[in-house]
Design a protein that fits this description.
Length: 140
C-alpha cells in the first residue's frame, strides 16, 4: 500500500474534507447571522413606517405601487395580474419610495380589461355614448 502512496492520498483527502466541513459550518453560521440581522433591520424599518411592497403571484397589477418591467403570456394567471416580482418596492408612511418591479401577464386578444374607460366615463362625451368629445369646432 505504501508504494502507491494511497495512504498519503487518503490523509490529504481527509484533511481537505475536514476543512470543507469547517468552512461549510462557518458559512451556515454566517448566513444565520445575516438573516437574523436582515430580520431585525426589516422590523426596525416597519416600526419607523417603511413598508416593503412585495405582491404575491396572481395579485392584480396596481400602477400606483408596481412598475411593469415586462409583459409575458401566461396560462397560470389571468391577464393583467403579476407573474413574478423582480425587485420589491418600498412605501414610507403611505408614500411610495420605490415601486415594486414586476412581470405582468399579458391579456389574450379576447380578454378585456375591467378598468377600460367607457364613453359614459368621458366627461366630454355625451350621455348616450355618442360623441367622444373629439369633434373640432371649425366655425371659429
Amino acid at each position: 500500500m505504501r508504494r502507491y502512496g494511497t495512504s498519503q492520498l487518503l490523509r490529504l483527502q481527509l484533511k481537505l474534507k475536514l476543512r470543507q466541513l469547517r468552512a461549510d459550518d462557518l458559512l451556515i453560521r454566517q448566513e444565520g447571522v445575516d438573516s437574523l440581522s436582515e430580520k431585525e433591520l426589516q422590523q426596525a424599518f416597519e416600526r419607523n413606517g417603511l413598508k416593503r411592497i412585495d405582491p404575491p403571484k396572481a395579485a392584480k397589477f396596481d400602477p400606483h405601487q408596481h412598475q411593469a418591467m415586462m409583459e409575458q403570456p401566461s396560462t397560470e394567471v389571468p391577464g393583467g395580474t403579476i407573474i413574478q416580482v423582480l425587485q420589491p418596492g418600498y412605501e414610507l408612511l403611505g408614500r411610495l419610495v420605490r415601486p415594486a418591479m414586476v412581470v405582468v401577464a399579458a391579456r389574450t386578444p379576447g380578454e378585456s380589461a375591467t378598468a377600460e374607460p367607457t364613453a359614459a366615463a368621458n366627461p366630454y362625451g355625451h350621455e348616450d355614448g355618442e360623441g367622444s368629445g373629439a369633434s373640432v369646432d371649425t366655425k371659429a
